[in-house]
Amino acid sequence: MKTNLLYYFIKEEMRLHVSLTNSKNYYSYPFTLICFFAGITLASHYFFSGLNTIKIGEYFISLLFVGGIMSGTFGLFARDFLERRFGDIGRLFQNSLLLPIKLGTIFLTAALSDTFFYIFWFILPVLLGYSIGLAVFALASFDLIYLAISSIFSFTTGLLLSFIFTVIFQRSKFVFTLLTLATVGFCTFLYSKFQTFLFFPFSIFYIEKSFSSFLMSLLLIILFILFAYLSIGREYTTTIRKKETRTSISFQKRLNPYILKDFIDMKRTGDLLAKPLFNVFIPSVLVLLLFLHSSLIDYLNFGILFFSIIIGTLGTQMLNSLISSDSMAYYNHLPISLKDFILPKMKLSLLICFLESLIILFFYSYYTKDFSQMLEAAIITLGLLIYNFALSFYLTGLHPNENIMHSKSFLLYLIYFVPVLTLVTFLNALFPTNLYYLFGFLLTTALMGKLYLTLGIKKWSVRE
Amino acid sequence: MELIKAEGIEKEYEHFKIQNFSLTLSEGKLFGILGPNGSGKSTIIKILTGQILPSKGNIDVLGTNPIRDPIKTKEKIGIIPEQESPPSFLTVTEYLEFIAKVRKLSHAKTKIHHWLDFLELKTEKDSIIKNLSRGTKQKVLFAQAFIHEPKLVFIDEPLVNLDPLVQKKMKSFLQEYVAKGNTILLSTHILSTAEEICDEICILKNGKILFRGSISESKKEKKNLEDFFVELIENEN
C-alpha cells in the first residue's frame, strides 16, 4: 500500500511535468544537465588550470544541503493542499485524506517522492556530468561514489530538516522559536569546536570516508524521518485551525488590490514571515555562512558582490511561492489580465527580497568591517532581481518550479542569465564603485526586465 | 436587441467536438443550455465568455469580441463558473471588496452590504473562504457575478450545492432579474430547474444542438421536459 502510494506520487509528478510542456522536453532534462555540467567542469579545468576536486565536492554537498532546505518548505502549505483549500488542482496528495492512510505516511511519502525526484532529476545527472568532465582529463577517482552518497544524504537531511521546521512553524511559533534558537546555539557550539561548518556526518563521510560517519548520516536521516512523522501528528489538519473568522483588511483604500490580496495570502499562509524566511532569507544566510568560512571566497575574489548574485538568483523562489499558491484560485471568470496577476506579485517579491538583501548585506559589511561596497552590492542585487523575476516569468510562466526542469527552459535560462552574471563580474572588476556603471546596469536590467515581462505576458496569455 | 451573436463555432477535443454551433440571444431572456455530462455545455459558456478560444467561428457579446478582447467582454458581463475556487485566504467581505475594486464599482460598500444581506452571508462575512461550505462558496460566486448589475450573466450549473431554501430564493431572483430586461444564459443538467425558470432552451449532445425552442414547444410531444429530453438523447445514440 505504502509503496504503491510512493509509486503513484512519483508517477503523478512526472505526468504533471510532461503535461506542462512535452515529454521530449522533460525527459531530456537530465541529459541536458549531464552535458552542461560536463562542459562546466571542462571549462573550469581550462580556466583555473586544474581543479581541487575535494573542495568542489565539499561545496557541492553543502549547496545541496541548502537546496534540500529550499525543497522541504512544503511543510508550510501541505496542510492547505491536504484540505483542498486551494483551487481544484486535483493532485493525489490532496485526495489522500479520503484514503485509509495515516497522515504521517502521506506527508512522508510526499517528502520521499520529492527526494527521489531530485536525486534522479538533478543530483545524479549533475554528478554524472561532472565525472564525465573529469574523465576527459583522467581526473576521475573513486571519490565520486562517496560524493554521490554524501550528496544524497546532504539533500535528504536538508529537506527533512526544513520540512520539520516548517511543520512546526505552522503548528507553534513558540516551539519553532525555541527549536531555532537551540539549533543556532548547537551549530555555533559545533562550529567553535571544529572551526568549520562541515560538521554534519554527511560532510565528514565525504572527507574521511569512514564507515562510522556513513552510519551516522543514515541514522540522522532515520531520526529526522521519525521526528518529521511525530511532528505531523495524527490530527494535524484540525488541531492547528485556530480562528475561523478574521478581521477584514479593507480593499477600499487606495492600495493596489492585487498587491493587497497577495499580502493577505502571505499573512494567512505563514504569518507574513514564513515565505520570505524559508524561501530567501535562510538559504541566503546559509550560503553566506558557508562561503564566509571557506576558501572559495578568496578563490573567486567576489566578496560582497558574490552575495548580490546569490540573493539576486535565490530571490525568484519568493516570486515562485506567491505564484504557486495563487495560481490555484480561479480568476478566469473575472476581467483580470495576466499582467494584473503577475506584476503585483513581482513588485511585492521585489520589495521583500530587496529588504532581505539589505539586511544580509549590512551584516556582511558589518562582519567584514567594510561598508564601502554596500551601495554597489544593493544596486546590483536590485538589478539582478528585476532581471531574474522577469526572465523567470518569461520562461516558466505560472508553473515556475515545474517548468524550469525542462531542457528548453533550463537552457534558455542559462543562455539569458549567465552572460548577465559574467558581465556584472567583469564590469565590477573594471569599474568598482562607479555610480555611472551601477545606474547604467540598473537601467539596462530594468529595460530588459520590461522586455521579458511584455514577451512573457504575450507568451503565457495564450488561451486553450 | 441581440446580446449574443455566435456563428459557426467549432472546437475540437480528444473525445468530442463542438460542430457548427450558432446562437443568437436577445435581451430579457432566461436561456438554458441543457445536455448530458460531457455534451459541451461548459465549453460553450467558456467560449462565449472568452475563457477559451474556438477553433472556428465569430462571436459578438454585448458589442465586444470575446475572441479578440476577452477582458472587455468580461468587464461587461457576469460569470458564475462551474468550479467554486475563489482565493482561499480572503474573507467573504474582502473577496467582494476585491471584485468591486477590480470592476471599479462606485458605492461598493452599499452593494456589498446588500448582497451579504440578500444571500444571508452576514454571519460568514469575516470567514476565510477556504473554511466555507461549497454552498456558501456558491453564494459568494453569485454575489460576485451580480454585484455590478450586468446586462448579461452566464451561469454554469446555477443551483448546484445550494440548499432548497436558497435554491427557491435564487430562482425567484433570476426570474426577477430577467424581468427587468437583463439576460441570463445558464447551463444545467437538472431539468426541473430549467423547466421551472427558463423561457427558452437548447438541448446539446456531443457539441451538437438537437433542439432549440421554448419549454412549451418541448412539451408539445411529451408530458414533461424530462421525457422529451430522454427520448431526444436516446434517439441520437
Give a description of the structure.
The complex is a heterodimer of chains A (464) and B (237). Chain A has 464 residues and is an all-alpha fold. Chain A has helices at residues 2-20, 23-27, 29-47, 53-71, 78-82, 92-95, 103-136, 143-171, 173-194, 201-208, 211-232, 236-239, 257-270, 274-292, 296-300, 304-314, 316-326, 338-368, 374-396, 400-403, 407-430, 435-460. Chain A has 22 helices and no strands. The radius of gyration of chain A is 22 Å and the shape is globular. The two termini of chain A are 37 Å apart. The model of chain A is unreliable at 236-241 (pLDDT under 50). Chain B is 38% helix and 25% strand. Chain B is built from 9 helices and 9 strands. Chain B has helices at residues 41-48, 70-76, 92-102, 108-118, 134-146, 164-179, 191-197, 215-218, 225-236, and strands at residues 2-12, 17-26, 30-34, 56-61, 77-80, 152-156, 183-188, 200-205, 208-214. In chain B, the strands form 2 sheets. Chain B has a 6-stranded mixed beta sheet, sandwiched between helices. In chain B, strands 2-1-4 form a 3-stranded antiparallel beta sheet, with no helix packed on it. In chain B, strand 1 and strand 2 (17-26) form a beta hairpin. At the A-B interface, helix 13 of A face helix 2 and helix 3 of B.
